Structure of HTH-type transcriptional regulator BetI:
Amino acid sequence: MPKVGMEPIRRRQLIDATITSMGEHGLVDTTVQTISRGAGVSPGIIHHYFGGKDELLAATMRSMLQQLRDDATQRLATADSPRARLEAIVDCNFAPGQFEPRVVAAWLGFWAQAPHNPALARLQRINARRLHSNLLHALRALLPAERAERVAFGLAAMIDGLWLRFALTGAIDGSAARAVALGYLDSELNA
């Protein structure tokens, strides 16, 4: 019989081990074995808490999205202008906890699998809509509606592209990515 109160601890442990495994092995080579080994538990624990690898992967993506959302909410709460809101959104996407190699590798694995996995595709759509909505809300206070829509699309694409560039080459760090994204934003706001 599992110890009382262990479920949240084990779930967090398995989610962290999944992110680490995806960072080290990629999604394809992340298995129940690599995850359980990384968490220091038996493979059966994954099935006990999640039902299987697919459910654990979806829970891991939900957890990562929740961390991103919590960070964005916290940063947006202190933003005192539309420009500051935009900067907060960019900042949370390139924060050290989000823009580290193992986390970026996990996101890349999820993005690659989303077209083939309905649960991951749904989570990706939610994330994309949330980013677009947050950007558009702030941009509408600064630009005409049609232009705000175009800049929101462009800035979201810039954020995604910088993530992809880092995932594939490691050629840019979070502060440099932030500077590129804010440079694009400023050029659009000043055009």
Notes: The CA atoms of residues 20 and 102 lie 6 Å apart. The chain has one domain: 6-190.
